[in-house]
Design goal:
By secondary structure, this protein is an alpha/beta fold. Helix content is 22%, strand content 23%. It starts with a strand and ends with a helix. It binds flavin-adenine dinucleotide. Flavin-adenine dinucleotide is lined by residues 10-16, 33-36, 41-42, 50, 52-54, 59, 100-101, 128-130, 132-133, 174-175, 208, 289, 292, 322, 332-334.
Length: 352
C-alpha cells in the first residue's frame, strides 16, 4: 500500500529533525524515515569520550537551545543524543525509526520513496542521511597485507579495546586528534599519530563558534557578490577540546608524517624507517550516503549532486541537507543546519 504525504525526509539525525521543525512551521504534511531504531542519528554511535567542539548554546537546533551539561564546557556525545531525543519528542516530530529508504524514483509529478517498510508518494523529498554510514578508507599501499586490525573512526569506542597494543592513528582532523589523545591519555596504549601534513590546532580560545562565524561571514560575502572570504580551512583543522589540550600539554600529541606503505606487521616511511603496529585506526573522513538517490541519476563529477543551496539542480523536488559546505556553509553542524533547513522548507512550500 502506498502512503501519500507532502514531504518525505530521509534521515532523522540532527539535519532531519531541523528539517521537520521548519516543515511544521510551513504547515506541510511530512514524515521522517530513519533507519536507526533509536533517536540521535550518528551521535548514538560515536565513542564514549567524544566532545562537541562548541559549547552547548552554540550547538543548538532551531527553536531549542541545547541545555548546558554539568561541569562540561563542551558537551559529550551522550548529551547530544539526549538533546536530539528530547527535541524529537518536544516538537512531536513524525519520525518512523527502523525504516530504511532503499530508493527514490520519479513517478509522474511526484517522487516515490521505497523503503523496507512500505512505499511513500510525495511532492518533495529532503535527503538528510549524513555521512556516518560511508566511512572513507584511502588506497594506501599494503593495506591488504597488514595482518593486524584495521578500523575506522566509526568503529572506535574506547582505549580499553587496545590495552598493551601499538596503535597507529591516521588523520589530521578532529577525529584523529581526539582519538589519538584519548588513547595517549589512557597510558596503557602505545600510540603513533600520523598526518599527511603537520596538524594545525586552532588557538585554545578559538572553538566551533569561530568556525561557525567564519562560515557565516563567507556565506554573507558570497551572497552579496563580494570576494570569497575563504572557509574555515584558513584557520586550522583541529579544535583544542579538553582531551586534545591535555594530551598536547603533556607532550603526548606529537604527529609524525604519514607512512608510505603498510607491511605485514607494521608501517614503513619514505626514509626507509619502519615501525611495528597491532592496530591501524583510519580517521580519514566520510562520504555522503546517497545510494538511495541513485535511480534519479543526479550524480556528476566526484560523486557530488550539483545543488543550488539545498535544491538538486536537476530535480527541483529533491533537497539535500547536512552533508557539508556544498549543501550550505556549516550545514553539517548542529548550529549550522538550521538555516539551510529553513530555506529548503520554504522552497518546498512554494512548490506544492
Ligand atoms: P547523521 O547524524 O549521520 O544522521 C543521519 C540519519 O540518517 C541516521 O539516523 C541514519 O540512520 C539515517 N539514514 C542514513 N541512511 C538512511 C536511509 N537510506 N534510510 C533511512 N535513514 C537513513 N557537529 C557539530 O555540530 N559539532 C561537533 O562538535 C561535531 N563533532 C563531530 C565529531 C566527529 C568525530 C564527527 C564524525 C562529526 C562531528 N560533527 C559535529 C558533525 C556531525 O556529527 C554530523 O555532521 C552530523 O551527525 C550530521 O547530522 P545528520 O543528521 O546530517 O547525519
Amino acid at each position: 500500500m502506498t502512503q501519500h504525504t507532502d514531504v518525505v525526509v530521509v534521515g532523522g539525525g540532527q539535519s532531519g529533525l531541523a528539517a521537520g521543525y521548519h516543515l511544521r512551521r510551513q504547515g506541510l504534511d511530512f514524515v521522517i524515515l530513519d533507519a536507526d531504531p533509536a533517536p540521535g542519528g550518528s551521535w548514538q554511535h560515536m565513542w564514549n569520550s567524544l566532545h562537541l567542539f562548541s559549547p552547548a548554546e552554540y550547538s543548538s537546533l532551531p527553536g531549542r537551545l541545547m541545555p548546558a551539561q554539568a561541569r562540561e564546557t563542551y558537551p559529550d556525545a551522550g548529551h547530544v543524543v539526549d538533546y536530539l531525543t528530547d527535541y524529537e519528542k518536544r516538537y512531536d516530530l513524525p519520525v518512523q525509526h527502523g525504516a530504511r529508504v532503499d530508493a527514490v524514483r520519479r513517478d509522474g509529478g511526484r517522487l516515490l520513496v521505497e523503503t523496507d517498510t512500505g512505499t511513500w508518494r510525495a511532492h518533495a523529498v529532503i535527503s538528510a542521511t549524513g555521512t556516518w554510514s560511508r566511512p572513507f578508507l584511502p588506497a594506501v599501499p599494503g593495506r591488504e597485507v597488514f595482518t593486524g586490525r584495521q578500523l575506522h573512526t566509526v568503529n572506535y569506542h574506547s582505549p580499553a579495546d587496545f590495552t598493551g597494543q601499538h596503535v597507529i592513528v591516521v588523520g589530521g582532523g578532529n577525529s584523529g586528534a581526539q582519538i589519538a589523545a584519548d588513547l595517549a591519555l589512557d597510558g596503557n596504549v602505545h600510540v603513533t599519530w600520523v598526518t599527511q601534513r603537520p596538524p594545525r590546532l586552532l588557538p585554545d580560545d578559538i572553538d566551533g563558534r569561530a568556525l561557525f562565524d567564519v562560515a557565516t561571514a563567507r556565506r554573507r560575502a558570497l551572497e552579496a557578490g563580494r570576494t570569497d572570504t575563504g572557509g574555515v580551512a584558513s584557520l586550522g583543522d583541529i579544535v583544542a577540546v579538553s582531551p586534545v589540550r591535555a594530551a598536547r600539554d603533556a607532550g603526548l600529541l606529537e604527529a609524525k608524517p604519514m607512512f608510505s606503505r603498510l607491511t605485514a606487521d607494521g608501517a614503513r616511511w619514505d626514509d626507509g624507517s619502519q615501525s611495528g603496529a597491532d592496530v591501524i585506526i583510519w580517521c580519514t573522513g566520510f562520504r555522503p550516503a546517497l545510494s538511495h538517490l541513485a535511480p534519479l541519476d543526479l550524480r556528476r563529477a566526484r560523486g557530488h549532486i550539483p545543488t543550488d543551496g539545498t535544491r538538486a539542480l536537476d530535480e527541483a523536488r529533491l533537497h539535500l541537507l547536512g552533508y557539508g559546505d556544498w549543501t550550505g556553509p556549516a550545514s553539517a553542524t548542529l548550529i549550522g543546519v538550521g538555516r539551510p533547513a529553513r530555506d529548503a522548507a520554504r522552497e518546498i512550500a512554494q512548490l506544492s
